[in-house]
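Data availability (excerpt). The following record was deposited with the supplementary files.
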Amino acid sequence: MAGSRTWSVSKACNGILCGLVSITAGCAGIAPQLSIVVGVVGALVYLASSRLTLNVLKVDDPLDAFAVHGACGMWGTLAQALLANPDYSVNGSAGLFYGSGRLLGAAVVGMLAITAWSAGLSAFVFFCLKRIGYLRVDLQAELVGLDVLEHGAAVPEFHALTEWRPETSGLTPLPHSCCCAFDTWPTAVLSVTAPQVEISLSQALI
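Predicted structure:
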């Protein structure tokens, strides 16, 4: 994928999804040929926002939920405001490229309102959770993954650990009850400090 020589199935699937998200707002008002352009631009918006979220803002968003639904949703809202064709729109509304800026103003106000509401409410909830000690799980749970500990499910990204053996890695296996439902790969956590965690886990994946 972009910035990498490795193909990613999850990013390919998200690319398809972000095209659908991007055209959702304007599906009734944008010409079919332009809808393809909206989807392609949406894929580029997804890749850029995904890299921004993880590499620049340092936010762990493993499903790229913001990149797909947030960034591409905003692009889709702007696309409708720019490309709305009065011949397709139910009430004859025209986008900026068709001579009217009213939809663009409404789209900007709507995005700012939704962003303020979502960010404000989320900040309040996260602050309360942090104060009472429920915002993050412990290091062991982060390393293994809550899908495993809470639901007994496997994590696809760690399927490379199938042939890995904890006795040669310096990791301490968890009790069997903590392992995932698929007994073909062991679940283990490091009993060392955080910097060593990253190194040893990377070696295990290799």
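Summary of structural features: DSSP finds seven helices and two strands in the chain.
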